[in-house]
Amino acid sequence: MSSTTIKDLEDLLVAKIAALEDPAHVKYFNTVDTLSEKEFRHEAITSFPGAIISFASDRNTGVRSRLVVDEIYDVAVISKKTGSDASGSHYALCDVVQNGIHGKDWGEANIEPFQYTGRELINKDGETLTTVMKFSVRHIKHVPATT
Question: Which of 51, 98, 117, 96 is nearest to 78 (CA)?
């Protein structure tokens, strides 16, 4: 991509998380989408487990003449509470996402590898568990042509 946008990076994360599969080639997630296309409600996920990807924030690094920003992306991992080890299965899914994204740039020229920065359990009530995982990426912005 010559000029990578936030939406491009959200879509990249959707594609990479949707492709994650176990050794038997069974996909880990039934639903993977972006916040910009689905309102973030637990009811929006109809097939579990699910992941919702969204841009969270950015900050100018201020260290170069070319615009370089550190961007944060959230990945909400949502699973049903089922079985005797529901939380163990949920956190195993979080680990799959962490291992699938951390340290990767997938050949994108305008970014440095994604870095895992933390997670927070935001919902444990009701029938689902939701953990928001945070990933940062240094994004080198396109320099527009001058006239």
Answer: 51
